[in-house]
Amino acid sequence: MLPNRIFFTGVPGSRWSGIAQILESLPGFNTSDRTPEREYKHNSYSGHVGAYFGPGMEFETMLNAEHIDQAWTKPGGCKLIKSHEWSEMLADLHHVFPEDWIMLVYRQHRPSLKWWLEAGGYNITYPNYSAYKDMSATIKQQNRAIMQWVFDKNCTLERFTPFWIEREFGQIVDFDYSKYEDVFVTLWKP
Prior knowledge:
By secondary structure, the protein is of the alpha/beta class. The chain has helices at residues 16-24, 65-69, 90-96, 109-118, 135-152, 162-169; strands at 5-10, 39-42, 45-49, 79-82, 101-106, 158-159, 184-188. The chain starts with a strand and ends with a strand. 34% of the residues are buried.
């Protein structure tokens, strides 16, 4: 059974948006946050769809259910709430939303930065990355925060595969997971 919300985080370039789209294709997810204005596509890149939370964006990273839920036009279902900033707010997230899950996506700094630049870098039209003045430093800082949570909570980082989805979500989905071979995930379920 899915929770009301899954707070979802990963650094820019971690391929977290592609993972989000795979998860949101599963039954039970609410994708009514998707609009043409909340979309970015770039060649073979899976792109961004739906609401993203962060500084300078349509929705700030506020720990307030009413604020967060306003991004969705339909009630019900599990909302995947995407923000790079959640990585640095994990303890507060867990405190404010103790029944909801937290999913972390980890990919090392250099491949993440390289992929983010290939996908458009500061020219990505959605979401807005203008608040990030030094993306390399931002990625390192957010990855450290993710790893700190992993160590503090004794989480296990695993490769993102269909087998992982089946075990964690009870759903079978087929996708090319070879492009995620350097991407690791963990799901915190209280």
